[in-house]
Design a protein that fits this description.
mainly alpha, about 50% helix
Length: about 130
């Protein structure tokens, strides 16, 4: 049985000094509640739980890159800028996080449980 090789892609990421706190907020206030609210629902909603797992893997990879500090990244000896890191992220994780972002964006634009205000607007009153 052949082992499947996981695709990775090298990404240049900006390292914000507040990265850990920002990730904490995203995980605690967005991803965990979404994953818990649809727990066991299956279907497309598994995207939220899978997205949380992918986010945690990417976060761990970024934390390791920040901890190691800048490194040489070109043959001529250039160093990474202090605020930038090169990281290898699994393409599946970045694809999954992109799909999650698209799903969340769609929900923000057209929440499924709210009626379309244009469809049920009352007729305007005649002028007096």
């Amino acid at each position: 049985m052949e082992q499947q090789e996981q695709r990775t892609s090298v990404r240049l990421v900006v390292v914000d000094p507040d990265l850990e706190a920002q990730c904490d907020r995203v995980e605690e206030h967005l991803l965990v509640p979404l994953a818990e609210s649809v727990g066991g629902a299956g279907g497309d909603h598994a995207l939220f739980a899978d997205g949380l797992v992918a986010f945690r893997r990417v976060r761990e990879t970024l934390a390791e890159a920040v901890a190691r500090g800048p490194k040489v990244w070109t043959p001529n000896g250039r160093w990474e800028h202090e605020g930038l890191r090169l990281v290898e992220l699994p393409a599946g994780d970045t694809d999954l996080l992109y799909a999650l972002l698209r799903e969340l964006s769609g929900l923000l634009v057209a929440p499924p449980d709210l009626p379309d205000p244009r469809a049920s607007s009352p007729p305007s009153a005649p002028p007096s």
